[in-house]
Every structure is written in C-alpha cells, then in structure tokens.
Fold this protein.
Amino acid sequence: MNAANTYEAIVIGTSAGGLIALASILKGIPHNYPLPIIVVQHRAKDPKDLLEEVLQSKCVIPIRQANEKESIQKGTVYIAPPDYHLLIENDRTFSLSSDELIQYSRPSIDVLFESAAAVYRNKLVGIILTGANHDGASGLALIKKLGGFTIVQDPLEATFPIMPEAAIQSTQTTHIWNLSAIQHFILHIHSDQ
Amino acid sequence: MNDVDGKELKSLLESIRFAYGYDFTDYSEASVKRRVALYMSNKKIKSFSDFSNTILKEEKAFEEFVQELSVTVTEMFRDPLFYKSLREHVMKRLATYPFIKIWVAGCATGEEVYSIAILLKEANLLDRSVIYATDINQHSLMIAKEGLFSIERMKEYTSNYQKSGGKESFSDYYISKYNSVLFDKSLRKNMVFSSHNLAGDKSFNEFQLILCRNVLIYFNQHLQNRVINLFHESLCPFGILALGNKESLLFSEKRICFDDIDKKEKIFIKTK
Ligand SMILES: C[S@@+](CC[C@H](N)C(=O)[O-])C[C@H]1O[C@@H](n2cnc3c(N)ncnc32)[C@H](O)[C@@H]1O
C-alpha cells in the first residue's frame, strides 16, 4: 500500500455475480466515508430493476443511481443507470452517454474507468470484481498507467473469474485480493478530503 | 485508449468553430474526449497535434470527425413506456389541433421519427400532421429519409412496439427487401428531414410537440439551458416537450414555465 498517496475517488466494475460481491464490500462502509464510490454493475435495461434498492437494504452508506450532470459527493455510492454509459467530467460532475455498447455492455466499465482516470489521475482507486467478460480490462490499465491504484478480486474467490483474469492480464496488477482484503483497504484509505 | 489533454482539446474546438462554424465547445468534455480518442485510434493517428492539423486542414477529415462525434445510436420505440405515455397522455391533446406540427430534434437515423408516425397513424392523426426531423449528421439524415432499416432488429422493435401498447401487426408497417425493411410510404409522406444544429441554429417554426431525446446528455449545463430556451420559444402555448429518460429541465431557467405531464417519462407541457 502506498501510504504517501491520497485518493479522491474509488471506481468499481463488475458483472455476473457482482451484486453479492458489492454488498459484501460495501456493507461495512460508514455513511460518512471520505470518498465517493462510483460503480458500474452490468445490468439489463429492465425498468423494474431494483439494484440500488437491494444494495441499500444491505448498506448504511447512501446508494444512489448517478444522475446526469450531478456533482459528485463524498460519502455516497453512485451506480451507473441501465442503458447509459457513465462518464466523469473535469468539474467532478457526471455525464451520461448513449454511445454504442462496449463489450456488449451499456453501461460499460471501460468507459467509466477511462474517463475517471483522465480526471482523477493518480488519486483514483480502480477495482475489478467478479464477471464473465473482458469489460474493464483496458480501463483498469489506463488507471494504472496514469498512476492510480489498481486492485483485482482474486479469481480463485470470484464467482466468475473471467473478468478479474482479463484485468490482471491487461494491467499486470499485483494487488490481487479477496473481498475482505479489498474492504479493509477501502476502510483504511488515505483521503485528501 | 489515448489520454487527451483538456486544454489542447478546448483550443482545437475553438479553432473548429472559427474554421467551420460548428460549435462543439459546450459539449460534455468527457464524451468528446472519448470520441477523439476513438477517432485517433481508428485512423491510427499518434499524436493530438497531428490530429488537430488534419482536422483543421482537411475538410473531409473534419466531416468524418463530425460523424464520429454525432453518435447515431438509436432504436424504434426505445423505452416502450415512454411511447405508451405518449399514446395515453399526448395523442388526445394533439387531436384538439386542426393541423399538427411536430419537431424531432436530434433524430439520428430516424427510427424515432417512424415510431412517432406509427403512433399518429394509430391515433388517426397522421394525415393532418407534419413531422420535422432534424440532426447535424448529414449521413444519418440520408438514412432516415430512405426509411430503410436492418431486418435484424425487427424482432426487438416488434417487442418494443407491443410493450408500448401497439395492437396492430407491426410487420404490416414495412416490407422486407433482402436484409433490410422499407417502411410504408404512407408513414413517410408527412416527414420533412433537414439539417439543423441545436448549438447555433435558430427556431424555424412553431410546434405542438417537440421530442429531443438523448441529445442533451451530450451538452454541458450551459448549452442545455440554451437549447431548452430554443424549444420554449418554438412551442405553441400548452405545447409539449419530451426529453430522454435521464434528461431534465434542471439546468434550464425556463423550468418554471413547464408542468409535468409524466414526470417519470420526462414529458412536459409549456404553461408560460
Ligand atoms: C444518441 S443520438 C439520439 C437519437 C434519438 N433521439 C434517440 O433517442 O434514440 C444523439 C443524436 O444527436 C445528434 N446531435 C448531436 N449534436 C447535435 C446538435 N448540435 N444539433 C442537432 N443534433 C445533434 C447526433 O447527431 C445524434 O444523431
């Protein structure tokens, strides 16, 4: 762990099996957590999907769907809405986009991670969890290239190891941790807030 | 993926405005950056300065870049519940006018325009309606005019149509031609396609209904406000404005001039 560094945001990407993994990481995070946590969980465009509500029922930190041009606040978990890509602007607001699917997905993890990396540079933590495709691998690589801190869930623990394996390969990340280690890291992070 | 510098990008967008009269300076920066990076990697352009030079020197390269920027992803009856709400709440209001003018702004390849035409037809309003459909992407407008769409997506569109409350047989609206389908002439006869740039061009008529879906998300707050002013000015009293599912009037000084018709589906009525 790089104690000298301080962080401004955490981005998390996950697909199949993600709900349980996210819940087990986020359930111990306090409501006054010093950073924003921004999540892409691959989801269908079903208008009745209750991802935010289900996660909130397990967590104390506020969980919200990210709104178009909303300004990003610490102590909040933002989830990308179905059928839109989520991007981060330099002024720390969200933008949505209807651009084509990436890796068969919208929202796409790569799109969030690449725009977050460009804004937060080395003050960003990027995390890839369980999933059954390669989305996020190139986004995590950019986070690493621009000096951010990258973590991948241990494929041995992940319900679906393909996404973590692809991310490990693209980034040569050495922080390959299980969920409880990832949670521990998040809880003890140094922030500059 | 390339990492495009914000300052360099701003100054290029200023030069583009000066050289070509297209104003992208108030677009959401993160999205533009992404399209620039995609364009550069497709064209195997290595540095941002090479990219700038090409765009400013070669008009053809600039036109291609506009195509890349003006994302054309769309579908018929996208968000079926939105169309259901139009059927239930908007058609009967339109029916009170002897002559109906509709503006679909940012119509892309036209799928939305044909969807609206089908709603109007099923409400017996098509014959007294004109739909003006506009976009900045010339190439998209050409496709829209033809009314020729890929057959592969018809299954999805049929299901969207049914979820929107459609009771007819969807396939009666088109004929298959090889791998494409051609929508019926009767739907097309009251459509007018034309190029219009929301970031600069003026109001050109008065409408009972304006649809502008999934376009504002590409603009910053400042440009969103300007475009809503343009729509406000282009709507008749009690005219209806419909936005995309994630768009709002939040950044508009005119938000007090509208009431909700369907809050969730982002359908508003001009009251002032
Ligand atoms: C994602 S598409 C939305 C298509 C359709 N309205 C829908 O919701 O499915 C965005 C469209 O906005 C158009 N657009 C972007 N900037 C524009 C501008 N300044 N004026 C008019 N149209 C614009 C693009 O060319 C593209 O066709």
Observations:
- Chain B is about 40% helix and 20% strand.
